[in-house]
């Protein structure tokens, strides 16, 4: 399942100032929900990967898979 976030609101725009994305470390004009610099795609990938990791590690120990 791929995550798509709605960052159309003004709270996600850093008013033309670039800061370092907290995930990929490249410059970004965008802010996450906590006001930290981040690319929308970086956050979407992180959320998707966290859900995938939780799904493969949440079953009984005998059903868990390793990556």
Protein topology:
Blueprint: E1 19-20, E2 27-28, H1 40-57
Antiparallel strand pairs: 1-2
Task: Tell me about this structure.
The protein has 67 residues and is mainly α. It has a domain at 10-55. It has one helix and two strands; from the N terminus they run ββα. It has one helix at 40-57; strands at 19-20, 27-28. The protein has a two-stranded antiparallel sheet. The chain is elongated, with a radius of gyration of 15 Å. The model has no long low-confidence stretch (mean pLDDT 83).
Helix proportion of residues, in percent? 25-40%
Percent of sequence in beta strands = 5-15%
What string, H for helix and E for strand, traces the elements in order? EEH
What would the principal axes of the Cα set say about the shape? elongated
Mean pLDDT: 83
The biggest sheet, with number of strands, parallel, antiparallel or mixed sense and barrel status, is:
2 strands, antiparallel
Quaternary organisation of the protein chains: single chain
Number of helices: 1
The Rg value, from CA coordinates, equals 15 Å
Structural class: mainly alpha
Report the count of strand segments.
Answer: 2
The low-confidence parts are: none
